[in-house]
Amino acid sequence: MNTAPVVPAVTTSPSASFLLWLLLLVPLLGGIAVAFLRDAKTAKLAALGIALLEFVLVIPTWIAYDPAGSRIQLSSSMDWIPNFGVHLALGVDGISLVMIALIGLLMPIVIGSSWADKLPEGRSVGGFYALLLVMQAGMIGVFAATDVFLFYVFFEAVLVPMYFLIGRFGGPRRQYAAVKFFLYSLLGGLIMLGSVIGLYVVSGDKLGSGTLDWATLTTVISQESQATQTWLFLGFFVAFAIKAPLVPLHTWLPDAAAEAPVGVGVLLVGILDKIGTYGFLRYCLPMFPAASKDLAPLVLVLGVAGLLYGALLATGQNDMKRFVAYTSIAHFGFIAVGIFAFSSQSVSGAVLYMFNHGLSTGMLFLVVGMVIARGGSTLISDYGGMAKLTPLLGGLFLVAGLAGLSLPGTNSFVSEFLVLIGAYPSRPVFAILATIGMILAALYVLWAYQRIMHGPVRGDALLGALKGPGAVAAPETATRQGIKDLDAREIAVLTPLVVLIIVLGFYPAPILDVIGPSVEATLHSVIPLGGN
Amino acid sequence: MLATVLTAQPVPPADKLSAPAIDYGAIMPVLIVLGAACVGVLVEAFLPKHQRWPVQVVLSLATLAGAGIAMAVYLGDESTPKNGVITLAGTLAVDRPALFLWGTLLVLTLGALLLIADRSVEPGGAFVAEAAIRPGTIQDRAQVAGTGMQTEVFPLTLFALGGMMVFTSANDLLTMFIALEVLSLPLYLMCGLARRRRLLSQEAAVKYFLLGAFASAFFLYGLALLYGYAGSVKLADISNAAAGTDRSDALLFGGLGLLVVGLLFKASVGPFHTWTPDVYQGAPTPITAFMAACTKVAAFGGMLRVLQVGFESTSWEWRGVLWGVAIVSMVIGAVLGLTQTDVKRMIAYSSIAHAGFLLIGSIALTDQGLSGTLFYLLTYGFTTLAAFGVISLVRNADGEATHLSQWAGLAKRSPVTAAVFTFILLALAGIPLTSGFVGKFVIFSAALQDGMAPLVVIALIASAVAAFFYLRVIVLMYFSEPAADGPSVTVPGAFTTASITLGVIATLVLGVLPAFALDWAGSGTFAFQ
């Protein structure tokens, strides 16, 4: 791999750089406007309109990005706080572009899926969608920022809407979950702040005046001594490991995902957690190559531990949302292994997995939400034989599950396969352990599917819905009243996901082409030091 | 050196005694404030009762405006020296940091005065009709129901402000001590003037007075020892004396230690913080706001000058001790704040934690440390001012409802108040896009530059712990169901609204576009003479 330049070149292309600002401002201003809409229906329609507009804006951005071009594109920059050399600087590389596309894609789906949600009493519909849109703006900002300070601001700012979304609109233990989520993330953020300040001070010592410009920092900090790099690396790493989340910093995710409304949960596991793995790629590897190489075994151990531990706990879960959260922890372990195996296949696979995981786990979360909306219970043991009542929902549950266990022909298979073949030459032990994780994935997905969908119709959630409270009817005589199959809105929400899962399973090239050069450039900062 | 200083000013014959040169332009803001305070006392003496309140309010606000204009004129004057002037026979140093602190004090006092002047939130204002009324008596109940008020609080505020301004620009320790007393005595008095909960208020005043008197004594004793060491009370002379002599260090560090205890007490830095929660809780809320914002600014302004001008050359010796003090303060503030059930006490413990952060900036003896601490003082003052402004609004039949359980479900009944308070709490926690974040960034980067990485790490962890109790209030306001007989939020009058708005807008602006204020804070260093 000798094509990528060592020093990332940033080009300013004013022609299309306004697109990123639009992507940032449309949901932000739209969200603020939606907050003032009193009528529920209007608020929903406005939010959906803004989310669709955002998706439409992603398309020209995708086209304007030239994979063969420079490292950071569509970039623009203006002074913000000159005292610290802080800029309002936006730009994308292939990795962040793919993540922004995922946000643009998932947001209308999330809004569509939340359409019929019953909010807790006294909560305003406008407020819910406003928070969703503001969070979308924050997430776009996280992925588009090319100034470390700006990145940090978005990184922290995303917490606030998420905190209110869980705490105000979530399930029975929402307060506990919201506070736990916020404190974990804030602690990680503050530790990272130490490193951000450290970057500023170290670059000030080197350059005369400190800067927080990402491109400058990658060239300056990567030349620093091992010890400096290690300390700064650890600050970023802890924050990202909490966000991702890696075992043992994962305990907030099951609580947060279980209590969050379904749509919010999709964003949480589908996008917000990716900030962690994205941070590894964008910040840890290029800025601290020596430390990354040094500590790679540690991260690999955490990754493998996460993917096995997450899989085992997912198998044992009785709560469906927690089940999805634990499968997600397992997948993040996989992504971490892919990133820190430092081969171009494994990192490409990991980035592709970041995108695919948003689709497959997002869909699984949505389908689980639809099951819960019908049965009124989140416990797997309250269900059984549901596919008899809702064959379409059962079938789509299976599709989402199979994508989650990486069946060949689904999108996740490509990414997991790339991670494994990329990791095997340099890290055979970890690759083999990760394969065990894949086998466990088949176990937990199929077992959950079987318990919920197959066999005779049983369980309190279904029988209760069939016959009213206290019914103990023989399931074969049960009628279909009470439990209906998917309606048109739900089919519309799931269709794009199903299509993408299958298309990308056979033809992942559109994504791989975009991320390829950026992955090479990221790896190039680590490999020349004599790694694998 | 000793000999020269002691003999430097031989007593001249009476006919040759000449007045020292005074740069009136430089000290005009202080003169205006102290002069107006004297006029305010005369107003109390000669005007009939019903005319005093409007006259005092207009006089006080005009004073602040006048002092601000005088400062702007002085700064705008081309002939004003950039590195400051020393005037009044070397007792006052009007340099850039002093002017920044004066500006900060004037603006924050404006906010506090607006709270003090408000008579719509509590009919008649937050102050007792006659301070001499004994709690629990018939007269006391009558004054609670009435609208009379001790308007002496306005001149007292101006005296305290004048003292604070002198304190931050005092170039010698004796002037500093006098300024300390001028700023403290009115505060002791004002703490005991609450209209409701008189006993609590009086207890706060007595506690503050007794402990404050001890702290003043410490300061004075330290001053005496330092005079014994250097033969001068001027900070620059002490610094010169300490550089490269073989005099006994016991006097120097004994003196410094006692002096700093006095300063740390005023700044409510742990472990010298014990008065803070009680006084913040017992004092009338507008006075708490004034103390939390302005006393902090004055105390740290004085501390910065003492440490940077007087003791920079010996920093190796004493900095380790202040490291420890900063850690203790942050830990006490963050950990004990977790256990509080009263919102005023909670903010008090938060202020102790913030004092620890400020101390980190103060002991980073660099230009960045100075400008960072100055900036942090500005941001913290505005935020805490707005916080107490909001606290004064949440009331039930007995006055302010400060118990946290009474704040449950506040967002449902008054979403705007809850949103404003949430923003303030996020600023105190240091979330980006608020001034609290930029303040933390400047202080911690200065500390890191000056080689205090472990302290920064501890400070970040303390911030995370402190965030928990701020979050708890947000949880209560937003996620809990309101209590059946909970307090109601008073619709604030123009004065309180203006004050809260000032605090919130400043918190937002300094968080989003802090460059201009950072430029001001970094525009110069202390004059050394």
UniProtKB/TrEMBL annotation, chain A:
Residues 145-437 form the NADH:quinone oxidoreductase/Mrp antiporter transmembrane domain. Belongs to the complex I subunit 4 family. It is a multi-pass membrane protein. The keyword Membrane applies. It is found in: Endomembrane system; Membrane. This is NADH dehydrogenase subunit M. It holds the Pfam family Proton_antipo_M. PANTHER family: NADH-UBIQUINONE OXIDOREDUCTASE CHAIN 4. GO terms for cellular component: endomembrane system; membrane. NCBIfam families: NDH_I_M, PRK05846.1-4. Coiled coil: none annotated. It comes from Herbihabitans rhizosphaerae. One of its GO terms (molecular function) is NADH dehydrogenase (ubiquinone) activity. InterPro entries: NADH_Q_OxRdtase_chainM/4, NADH_UbQ_OxRdtase, ND/Mrp_TM. The chain crosses the membrane at residues 18-38, 45-65, 85-112, 124-143, 149-169, 181-202, 231-249, 256-275, 295-316, 323-344, 350-373, 385-409, 429-449, 491-509. One of its GO terms (biological process) is electron transport coupled proton transport. Keywords: Membrane, Transmembrane, Transmembrane helix.
From TrEMBL, chain B:
It is an enzyme of class 7 (translocase). It is found in: Cell membrane; Endomembrane system; Membrane. It comes from the Bacteria. It catalyses: a quinone + NADH + 5 H(+)(in) = a quinol + NAD(+) + 4 H(+)(out). Keywords: Cell membrane, Membrane, NAD, Quinone, Translocase, Transmembrane, Transmembrane helix, Transport. GO terms for cellular component: endomembrane system; plasma membrane. It holds the Pfam family Proton_antipo_M. Its EC number is 7.1.1.-. This is NADH-quinone oxidoreductase subunit N.
